[in-house]
């Protein structure tokens, strides 16, 4: 008698979760439309309006503040990779901002002539666009400098992270704070270094000025687009900075969905469990520092181009704290939340707080300088958020679930109540 083995049932894969068009493309399309509206309004509509409206609009939303807010968002996305994705507290992120800025100062300005007397007649130009009358020094194309600054800062992130990432929590925060304080001091005191102090590396507190213009490349063929974006071409600078912000957002989103991003999230959730599952902790942490630092380098070049120079006094501890507040208030781990948080806080810090203070003073007859109390106000906002909305404005789904879980005592009391209810129901059934 022959027996036949029944055929195995076919493997049915669960259907892929359906995502609506709005949930997948809503945020990207929203930011694209917002960028187009901001550029179009400031480039063509605002110059045609009457003087009073134009003055009031520029008081509330000047183009310089918009550009600076976009640059802050690039930095915040870089810090979000370190803090929001990997769960590594970094209090010295301003160091990468400074390194990126000084890379721009070294490679996009006449400053190289001042490094040493032997370089007084140095003139190197690699597709650069120096300002009129400042042809000497080193002038490398803006788009090449972005790549160079990203690589230099990524290397710096690895060098800084290699000896420190074995530490955890508070100890790691203190070490990164130390690095964040050391590098600005190097920038401030780098005017006379080397034998007999003949080398000028950073120009000290005087800083580096005369940053090159931004070339537009083939886009200059479009009517109205200049060949180079100068100091006062604010709307075209906005397009460049918004494009780089879009690249940073795209990279953040794509990495998060890949193998590296999942490894970062695993370390953030439970480092021990991640190591037991075969995640190489040191290498993955270093990659987070390197990628986050690369974003800082790109933002540093943008900021140097935005203000036309690099000043050592700009890179202080408060910048790192402000960036951390942007990440926390926006929603750690959520690219859209961090971007919105950075744009809003940067605008408030630059012009919004002063203008809101003027409205308050006009309405109440008081004379309070709200701009001078920005850290007091930010501190109060942080306290309120930590009490009532710890997950941020636009939280990541996982972070929201974790932070909104009831406390252990509440869970135990709920379990006890359910157990007592079940026992009472069973007792009543026995009596019947």
TrEMBL record:
Predominant location: membrane
Highest taxon of source: Bacteria
Pfam families listed in its UniProt record: BPD_transp_2
Membrane-spanning intervals of the chain: 25-45, 65-84, 91-109, 140-162, 238-255, 286-311, 323-348, 368-388
Membrane topology: Multi-pass membrane protein
Renumbered residue ranges of the record's region Disordered: 404-432
InterPro entries noted in UniProt: ABC_transp_permease (IPR001851), LivM-like (IPR043428)
Keyword Oxidoreductase attached: no
Compartments reported by the entry: Cell membrane
Tagged with keyword Transmembrane: yes
Alphabetically ordered keywords of this record: Cell membrane, Membrane, Transmembrane, Transmembrane helix
Protein's recorded name: Branched-chain amino acid ABC transporter permease
